[in-house]
Every structure is written in C-alpha cells, then in structure tokens.
Amino acid sequence: MGRRARLSQVKEEPRTLIFYEAPHRILECLQDMESVFGGERPALLARELTKTFETLKGLPLAQLRAFVEADSNQQRGECVVLVAGWTAPESEEAVSSEVVRVLDLLLAEMPLKRAAALAAEITGVRKNVLYQIALEKQKDH
Q1: CA-CA 20 to 30 A from 92: which of 2, 8, 20, 56?
Q2: Residue 19: which H helix or E strand, with range?
Q3: Distance between CA 32 and CA 44 in Å, rounded?
Q4: Per-residue pLDDT of the chain (141 residues; tens, 9 = 90+)
C-alpha cells in the first residue's frame, strides 16, 4: 500500500501522529502529508535529535515542506515528523467521512427518516444534522 493511501487512513485520527522517515525520502513524505492532511495542519520536524546539528522546526505542513525544500541540509540525518491530530471543524454541521459512510449505507437500505435516526444512534451525531445531509444527497441525485 502506498504512502498516500496509508496517510489517508489516519487523516482524521485525533491523536498526534509520529513518523520516522529516511532523509532521502523526507521531502516527498512532507509533500504527501501536505496533500493528504492539508497545508495548514501543524507539524514538527525533529532532525538529528541529541546530536550536534539537532533541528526542531514546527510549522504548518505547507511551510515545513517549503523549509525542507529550500535547505538541502534539512534532508540529511535521522528525521522524525510529528503531525498534530485531526480536529473537527468548528461548524456543527461538519461530520466525518466515516459518519457519512454509515449514513450512505443505511440510506441504501431504508427510508431517509429511519436512516438518519439510526445513523444518529450509531454515530452520536444529532439526527437533524444527518437528516439535512441525507436531504442534500437526495437533491444531488
């Protein structure tokens, strides 16, 4: 399985993610992280820990990638990347892709109102939020 596919699996993980990466792959790894997690996700590059040229650089992923890209010295030595865990958007209407997947599965098997109610019981998301999402999905079809 490719790196982007693996990163996609942990995209909505709320805990801090820790990656050990080889120096010759660090730039490509940061590019993939930026692509999957978004350029605004906070991250920290810890390079050459406990050694003379130790580097700790914390920036949003887009800026961290640009920092590493601009300085080839950052592409040497032992690299550890810490990525902040996913946080749900502030909007109450925003729901995770897993909640939408549950709702889609239920919509395929039962009426909209029942599917929204059952999805709410399963996921803990408010029923009226799921009902509105289901209505929007029906409009799109």
Answers
A1: 8
A2: strand 17-21
A3: 15
A4: 799 999 999 998 989 999 999 999 999 999 999 999 999 999 999 999 999 989 999 999 999 999 999 999 999 999 999 999 988 765 545 678 888 889 999 999 999 899 999 998 988 888 888 888 888 887 776
Cβ neighbours of 13 (radius 10 Å): 12
Q: What secondary structure does DSSP assign to the chain, as a single string?
A: --HHHHHHHTTT--SPEEEEE-GGGHHHHHHHHHHHH-TTSEEEEEESTTSTT-EEEEEEHHHHHHHHHH-GGGGSS-EEEEEPPP---S-TT---HHHHHHHHHHHTTS-HHHHHHHHHHHH---HHHHHHHHHHHHHH-
Residue type, 141: H
Q: What is the DSSP letter of 59?
A: E
